[in-house]
Amino acid sequence: MFGEASGKGLISIEDWSLWRIEACLERARGIFEARRRGEPIPYKVEGKTLATLFYEPSTRTRVSFELAAQELGMKVLSIQAAASSVTKGESLLDSVRTLEAMGVDVIVLRHPLSGAPAFVAGHSRAAIINAGDGMHEHPTQALLDAFTVWRAKGRIQGLTVAICGDVLHSRVARSDALLFSRFGCEVRFVGPLALLPRNPSALGARCFSDMREGLAGADVVIALRLQKERMDSALVPSLAEYAKRYGINSASLALAKPDAVVLHPGPMHRGVEISEEVIESERALIFTQVEAGVAVRMALLMDVVGE
Ligand code: NCD
Fold it and tell me: What are the backbone angles phi and psi of residue 237, rounded to the nearest 5°?
């Protein structure tokens, strides 16, 4: 959608060709295994600077970008809007230009407005990486989700992926659907009607409000947080009722394939969209996703500013 403006960075999962994505995941695999074995990573991106510029809270995404950049030998700056000149009324573009003027090569931007990273990319010399823009996209989360699935299942092609819960407000769901459908997966959005998007086919997905139908035959189940900060009014009757009808728990997971794996981008609400029991089970790959996030973001930075 905003692909034209993205330049050398990554704004939407649609900006990158499948071969570029596969090359990134392939490189991430080497990095992931080396990190697990405690071996040094044979790649360096020295002499380059990365800034994280976050206008929304984050734990995983910001820390893993910063760690990834540090492990590659980059200089790292961390700017959280709440503690910057943004509070004095500085515009997004002026903040970006200020960072550029200091010689920053890569800006990892999280912003509540859909389209903000694409806008900035059209006016910036630095590579812009979208770390989540409103309800639009979160492409690096999709890359690490695909990596985690590939590692667990040995393939991505042809899998059935059920993305469950508050799909409507989720940028992760949008990027995941775009990516998994490009890999030839059957992508399903599963949840109460009020939390499902109206145009799933534009994202390569189909909607199911019946858990039984939506989870039947699923190889991968991705649980999503209820994103109350993006809801104008309460869209679910009560958390207890939501957990019972649409939560991923041992009973609902039994509707999927016996070897189905469970992902969650975090932050999790234990006992709401996903049960304690599932989180602590062998089938949950939630902390592997976090581990994969560092390797995948290192591979991504190699692509964007390496060599
Ligand atoms: C997600 C996000 O910020 O979009 N979290 C993340 O980056 N891992 C999902 C969420 O906030 O629920």
Answer: -60, -55
